[in-house]
Design brief:
The protein has 15 helices and 15 strands. It has two domains: 151 residues, Aspartate Aminotransferase, domain 1, CATH 3.90.1150.10; 257 residues, Aspartate Aminotransferase, domain 2 (3-Layer(aba) Sandwich). 43% of the residues are buried. Helices cover 40% and strands 14% of the residues. The chain starts with a helix and ends with a helix. By secondary structure, it is an alpha/beta fold.
Length: 446
């Protein structure tokens, strides 16, 4: 019989041995530069640790619409098969609802069986894209600021991300003042370029791409023969008078575009973690292969609920432009619910002398935090080599229990320092949270 103390000692020695030789067993992909870093791991953890007021992380802390919640509550008991596996590439009622919803938007019939993939969140839809189309040595152009998973996903697949920043025109006050230099974009494209990732509306900036910009981007994609991955998870959060225009609907673009959507952003239910991708069968089928060899299927009750939520919306007059209907959930969410919150966040930041960039889409707002420097004792900031916004976000959370997100997290290493004066705020919060945030900001920084 092994004595307990000897057993514990053996286990400790074994653990140390495994740790010291871990690299012997690791794959190259998990050791690639940058893939181990994740802004959410640090700053969501910090917000929880300090019990901070969370106006950084992108989730609504108010409930989804009643019909959305009701679409889920009865499903597990209503039909016991809703508790079992469903069709691997997407629950049949959901892909049919998605087809009925998006086909008018695209001006074509999208096959529910072959031209959709339902995944565990839009996050995994993006992962399926990079795993399906990126080979070692391929390049992917990413426009900055970008949702932070794009770059590590490309790297993880063996590709090389190439970055081009959006620049503000003059003294910027709105997100649509930020534009891409198409000449520089053209210069970046070479025989290794496989795809370009478009985020419309953009997170964290809130830019909504114009018809003219999308036409130019489409022309480049077609002429240079590259794929377009259009991340449109904030498609329903576009504030009038801006319009949501889908690049896959342009002539010649359906054949080379994969569009990404999200139930979490669509229905204000981020915990559902249901996402989807749609496009031509030739592009979606390889993603089916990745999916069937990894997760295979997503949660049946959540997919059924999502399908019912779409059906409720489509029971109203629907022609592919749901916000044109005054009774549309999407219109009320954007214009009645989120627009006043956007205006409230703008005023709070302006009242303490900050310079917010007012978004035209989404529920994030970045602000130039330079005026805050007069309140900051630099010795109170941490001594890391991280960009200034990382240090300020940590300081805000630790000292004042206000949780935000550093804007430079959405930039490549070479460009972080150019955009470290901004911090990202999320205004998809209930009025009590926003009022409390306003009180704290004015109390400490007025």
């Amino acid at each position: 019989m092994v004595k307990p103390l000897l057993l514990k000692s053996s286990i400790k020695r074994s653990s140390r041995l495994m740790a010291s030789h871990a690299s012997k067993f690791l794959s190259d992909r998990v050791q690639a530069p940058g893939v181990d870093k994740n802004v959410w791991v640090e700053f969501v953890g910090m917000a929880m640790k300090h019990k901070a007021l969370n106006v950084g992380q992108g989730f609504p802390n108010f409930p989804p619409a009643l019909h959305v919640m009701e679409s889920l509550s009865a499903i597990p008991v209503e039909n016991h098969m809703n508790n079992q596996y469903c069709r691997g590439f997407g629950h049949a009622p959901l892909v049919q609802a998605l087809s009925d919803f998006y086909s008018p938007c695209m001006g074509r019939t999208i096959d529910p069986q072959t031209e959709f993939l339902v995944t565990v969140g839009a996050y995994y839809a993006l992962y399926s894209v990079t795993q399906s189309f990126i080979n070692a040595g391929d390049e992917c152009i990413i426009m900055e600021p970008f949702f932070d998973c794009y770059s590590p996903m490309v790297t993880y697949a063996g590709g090389t991300p190439r970055f081009i920043p959006l620049h503000p025109k003059g003294e910027s006050h709105t997100a649509n003042d930020w534009c891409i230099d198409f000449d520089k974009l053209e210069e970046m494209i070479n025989p290794k370029t496989k795809m370009i990732i478009l985020n419309n509306p953009n997170n964290p900036l809130g830019k909504v791409w114009s018809q003219a910009e999308l036409e130019k981007l489409a022309e480049i994609c077609i002429r240079r023969d590259i794929l377009c991955i259009s991340d449109e998870v904030y498609e329903h959060l576009v504030y009038a008078p801006q319009k949501m225009i889908r690049i896959a609907s342009f002539p010649g673009m359906w054949e080379r575009t994969i569009t990404i959507g999200s139930a979490g952003k669509t229905w204000s239910a981020t915990g559902w973690k249901i996402g989807w991708a749609y496009g031509p069968q030739e592009l979606i089928n390889p993603m089916h292969v990745v999916w069937q060899n990894s997760i295979y299927t997503a949660a049946t009750p959540l997919q059924e609920a999502c399908a019912r939520a779409f059906r409720t919306e489509m029971d109203r007059p629907f022609d592919g432009h749901p916000k044109d209907n005054p009774d549309s959930y999407f219109r009320s969410l954007c214009e009645d619910e989120l627009r006043p919150k956007k205006e409230k966040m703008t005023k709070i930041l302006q009242d303490v002398g900050l310079n917010p960039i007012v978004p035209d889409g989404g529920y994030f707002m970045i602000a130039d935090m330079t005026p805050l420097k007069k309140f900051i004792d630099e010795e109170e900031l941490d001594s890391t080599n991280d960009p200034w916004d990382y240090k300020v976000v940590r300081w805000l959370c630790e000292k004042y229990k206000i949780a935000t997100i550093p804007n430079s997290a959405f930039y490549s290493t070479g460009h972080k320092k150019n955009y470290e004066k901004y911090i990202r705020f999320c205004f998809a919060k209930d009025d009590n949270t926003l009022d409390q945030f306003g009180e704290e900001m004015r109390r400490h920084f007025s």
